[in-house]
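INFO  loader      accepted 1 record
INFO  loader      residues=171
INFO  predictor   begin
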Amino acid sequence: MAFHGLSYVRCYQILGLRPGATAEEVHRAYIQLVMRHHPDRATNDPKSIQIFCQVTEAYSRLKNSLIAQARLRNGGVCPKCGEIAELYRGMDQRQYCATCLLHSRRRFLPLPTFHQIRCFAAISLEVLGLYCIIISTLTGDWLPGAAAVILAIAAMGALAFNFFSADVIEQ
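INFO  predictor   done
INFO  writer      dumping tokens
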């Protein structure tokens, strides 16, 4: 009986673990379940044999993926899709795989409220700078113009902070 269509999240559920459990936790859970449902111990119980097959398949899939995950720089289980892959920090500061992160950015047009709030500092500084330029032009005074330059530099700093705090995804 093959269960090749198991997702990683389902494999963790079969072993009674939360996604992202360590290799030691996975192995410990596997040993406990195999000892309980092994065909030599639970003879003539088809449900126990089915559980034994599911546990063995889930452990095999997780073990192979954990070995692959150890080779990755920032490997882990993506909270959206449940796949084990290299994780990147998004604008909400949570970690996602590249596929989920890129799909979410394409899906969020216009920007969701959280992303708008994150850009609010730069946008408000630019608006205030524009106001200072208008005042400087109307009054002929250089002081609001200087304030506009300072506000523009501050807005660039806010944008740079947002840019450098997100991970880069190369494909």
